């Protein structure tokens, strides 16, 4: 019964290899993204994005995704300057900050005549 509690060495080796392969794939994807960002962004824009990355990694990742998506769609042509990056970030923030509000309009089911009748009934 001890064999069930312990992992088979072959299974452990296979899991280690899978984890290493996954790490290598993530590293390749990260390198491809960085290479693409170097081609798309000017030096100043890359510096700004790295500052955003240091302060808010999740936000930087979202901005990078937008930039890469726009580049793939052909929306971005040439290098993106720092000013263009600022405009893109402002657009992103504006879209993100727009919230939908819902207001409920409740109908008054009792009109004023009925209220008087109810008052008389309970008096």
UniProtKB/TrEMBL annotation:
Q: Which GO terms describe its cellular component?
A: cytosol; nucleus
Q: Which InterPro entries match?
A: PDCD5-like, PDCD5-like_sf
Pfam families, alphabetized: dsDNA_bind
Q: Domain of life, per the record?
A: Eukaryota
One of the record's GO molecular function terms: DNA binding
Region Disordered: start-end pairs: 1-35
What family, per the record? Belongs to the PDCD5 family.
Q: Which PANTHER family match?
A: PROGRAMMED CELL DEATH PROTEIN 5
Q: What is this protein called?
A: Programmed cell death protein 5
**What is the organism field in this record?**
Euplotes crassus
Taxonomy of origin reads:
Eukaryota, Sar, Alveolata, Ciliophora, Intramacronucleata
